[in-house]
Design goal:
- This protein has one domain.
- It is built from three helices and 13 strands.
Length: 287
Amino acid sequence: MMRTAAFVAGLLWLGQAEATTLPYLDMYALVQGADGVVEGTVESVVSARSDQGQIFTYVTLRDLEIHTGSYGQGSLTLMLLGGSADAQTLEVVGAPAFEEGQRVVAFVASNGTDIVPLVGWEQGLFVVPQDGRNLVTDSVGNRILDVEDGRIEKEQRYGFEAQVIEPQPVADGPGEARSGSGQGGSRSGTSDAQQQSLTVPNAGQPMAYDAFIQSIQGAARRVALSGPRQTRVLNSVQVGATLQAAPPPRAMSILKAPGQEAGAPARAPLPSEAPGSPPAGPSPSRP
């Protein structure tokens, strides 16, 4: 008999069995949190048990287009915790499902070090139906209607597995939003009106693929102008790999004052370092 283990990995525990709660992320937050935004066709979906006994699903994308970030290989393999192997199934509630042949746009982050390497989990995957209509849907099939000032408006025919809560914005700038209590996605900081605002009517013209990609690129430009970011790496994994420890963040290069070492406190320049001073040399001998 196949046994199913439900993995509960919510950002906020609300006392609900098998529930995952995630904060709503707009386009700016998705782009800001991603190592890169990758479009590709799902070539294979393989579940296997790692050497440490955990079940992972490996999703390989080919025919890649890199919309943000840098990546030089011909294919990209994502690793997600969960799947079916050895007559057992591990389900991660809120992780998106992939199907072979799908054309997807993925906001990839921490591949190989996070259990779901997508920003916002289900929110970080979009599907481009290959039916000639060139429309875009979210990961569960709702058509995208518009992206206005970062907000992703879409149909609400299908719900995510995870519960998505919209935080109350308290800060300006792309991708910055917290609840009134200071905890992103907190139910206590979310009003009924805010939760209802997540739902839009099913009417309206669906957003075309080209316009959707332009919204990603526009968000990337705005995020780039909002301030410096830590250097991030978009990487692939091998089928059969297991989770690795996250590498330490790379510090951004900062111009240093003359004679100041990285991490050292600033000091006043020596007289010989003042502009226009001759190079320092050995002190002249006294006559």
